[in-house]
Amino acid sequence: MNNIDSDQPSRKRPRLEGASEDDDGGRESGDKNGVANGHSREESADAVAEDEASVTASREPSVTHEEDCSSEPQSTHKSAESQQQPALTSQPTQSIANAAVSQPLAKTGVMPAPVTAAAPLSSSRPPPPPPQPQPQPQPSASAPQQQRSNHHHHQQPHSMHHLQPSIFGKRPDDDIVLQVSEFFWQNLGAVADGRQLEIEGKLGLIVDRNTGNRIRLPVRSETVLWNDGSYRFDSNMTRDQHGHFNRVLNALVQPPAPGITPLRYIHTNEVDHYHEGGGGDGGRNKIRVSMDQKTGQVREVLCKRRIADLEIHLPNSPLDFRISMSLEMPAPHPPPGSVSRSRRFKDRLSYSHQAVRVDLTQVKQVMGKSEEVTHECEVEFIRAACLLEEREKRLRNQPNLFTAYVDVFLNNLRFLSRKAPRLP
């Protein structure tokens, strides 16, 4: 045990109130009479008076300076009496220096005296022991269920690469993509020559024939409609919407981000003359003669026959869209003297990107003396025969891109529909 200030005269402090008489091996007493039990050495009256004044002064700030004592460093609370305490060699107790470090200060402001294990203070609560580290529970082979439960609640994936798409290890097909793929699959079976196939999706509104307004269905997401004749599709959009699409697409013609294929742009001006068709179709299929407006050169003569339509309603977007499949079959020139019943002057901006092309067209339709200007936006397969080829691959159980083409086609229609400005 270390001695503290061994050069000071050795004398006992008065015993504190409530202390046991067994503590004369090293603890300071608090008896107000100032007499130490069991000692033959007499002290002068002056020394006893000084000790009583010291004990009284140490008790006074116990209420008013409680917070200050708890916040000050421990090394500043050594009183004069603690410096004069004799060395403790006969009892198995801690030194005052060790007690000041291992035990918190008492609220009275007096450095706690060393206490023997056999005689604790009976009138005051002992200082709480320092917190001991709690042993960590070791995994036991008898509790595998608890380990699995903790693993389930606390283990988090380190990145998205650890997440599998489902408990089956794969992602379910998009329902809209499945419906459109089925629509294409069924109608492609009747197509013999893919070079005559046209597949396009036009933006517009699905209109209720009874009200003349856009349909309002009890759905909250895009929906493929079963059109029983109650709806019609209006491909005309406002001039502001058309101009907005023009600005959006022009921005994509600029050098894109790395890894993105840029759009190719072309501006054409054509006029379509429609003549009555021949054959056994009762005149339902018109012959279309397309000519360059500036040069008058004939670009193509064909007869367009519609195969099927599929309407998709997007209640959260400003526009719906309709997917159409048609055959554009070469036709002979109209006989001499045939007069076109209508003309369509088309000012068209075409933006091509990989497998699809987006056409923005301002149309002026002339029938006799009446004229009507409309604005249209459509997405079209540049080469629709690719779907027919991918279908054949799937029939032979070969790797194919049939669903991928459908997905890309729908993605372009969805993005354009969502980016359209809403009508007031």
Automatic annotation (TrEMBL):
Cofactor dependence: Mg(2+)
Compositional bias ranges of the Basic residues kind: 149-161
Pro residues composition bias: residue spans: 125-138
One Pfam family, short name: mRNA_triPase
Ranges where the mRNA triphosphatase Cet1-like domain occurs: 174-381
Keyword Nucleus tagged: yes
Compositionally skewed regions (Polar residues) per UniProt: 71-96
EC number: 3.6.1.74
Record SUPFAM superfamilies: CYTH-like phosphatases
Chief place of localization: nucleus
Keywords for the protein's UniProt record, in alphabetical order: Hydrolase, mRNA capping, mRNA processing, Nucleus
Biased composition (Low complexity): 139-148
Coiled-coil annotated spans: none
TM stretches of this protein: none
Catalyzed reactions: a 5'-end triphospho-ribonucleoside in mRNA + H2O = a 5'-end diphospho-ribonucleoside in mRNA + phosphate + H(+)
InterPro entries per record: Cet1/Ctl1, CYTH-like_dom_sf, mRNA_triPase_Cet1, mRNA_triPase_Cet1_sf
Source domain of life: Eukaryota
Subunit structure: Heterodimer. The mRNA-capping enzyme is composed of two separate chains alpha and beta, respectively a mRNA guanylyltransferase and an mRNA 5'-triphosphate monophosphatase.
PANTHER family: POLYNUCLEOTIDE 5'-TRIPHOSPHATASE CTL1-RELATED (PTHR28118:SF1), POLYNUCLEOTIDE 5'-TRIPHOSPHATASE-RELATED (PTHR28118)
Protein's job: First step of mRNA capping. Converts the 5'-triphosphate end of a nascent mRNA chain into a diphosphate end.
Similarity comment: family membership: Belongs to the fungal TPase family.
Protein name (database record): mRNA-capping enzyme subunit beta
Source organism per UniProt: Geranomyces variabilis
